[in-house]
Amino acid sequence: MKLVTYDGGQGPRLGLLSGDNVVDLADASNNALPSDMRSFLEMGEVGMEQARAIAATPGQGQPIAGVRVLAPISNPSKIVAIGLNYMDHCREQGIQPPKRPTTFTKFPSSIIGPGDEIRWNSELTEKVDWEVELAVVIGKEARNVSAANAFDVIAGYTICHDVSARDLQLEKGDQWIVGKSLDTFCPLGPVIVTKDEIADPHDLGLRCLVNGKAVQDSNTKELIFNIPYLIEYLTKGITLLPGDVITTGTPDGVGAFLKPPVFLNDGDEVTVEIDGIGAMTNLCVEEK
Asked: Which helix H or strand E contains 12, and what residues bound it?
């Protein structure tokens, strides 16, 4: 299934994509299902089963083209981000791969959706960079989960654009969280694809295009620490909750390591896409 949050004129609603239509899951279930993604994921398999039953009935809903698609989840309890997790990203920097995952966080307040503007103040940062990432969405409470059981706690996958202010992140005292968590610096979307639709999350092509030009083009085969390992590693000491997001790192091609470096500018259009999930485009706006 492809789950989506959208606004058809009555505020955010939880939807299910059915062909070119979107089905309001609360309406289709006579309000047995909630109208927001986090509450839905908190229902666990009970909610998923009801959504699958609705998905099995074709010809429902309204055209997706007539609604505004939002970030699929806007209020996770946390976003856990993984850095330096692609072999090709390490190679472009000329560094050895890390021996354990590099972790940081992006604040939920940084989330925006497809079509929203990535905005920054030029007095705060002048080196805004792009990073396409596969994001894992947690579907049940997870603590001390073994790698062998990791897929049991996954609801599905979405795309994260890990927008990064490199000068804040790297040049002004290693401010990773500030450099990664400015408002609008976490576009998510366009959908959450349930895990049963992704045969192997470790074999997905992913790309980033700036003004139509491909700047990143890689595959999740390049991941250093795979998804089960990350879930086992994180849940040894951190409880993951339904709706939490793990961003799994970015491949090579980021602007900071081009020669010479290239950063995003006012008016740039950035598209991030992953096979089997979709694509998301955002316009850049520099506030002066």
From this structure: strand 12-18
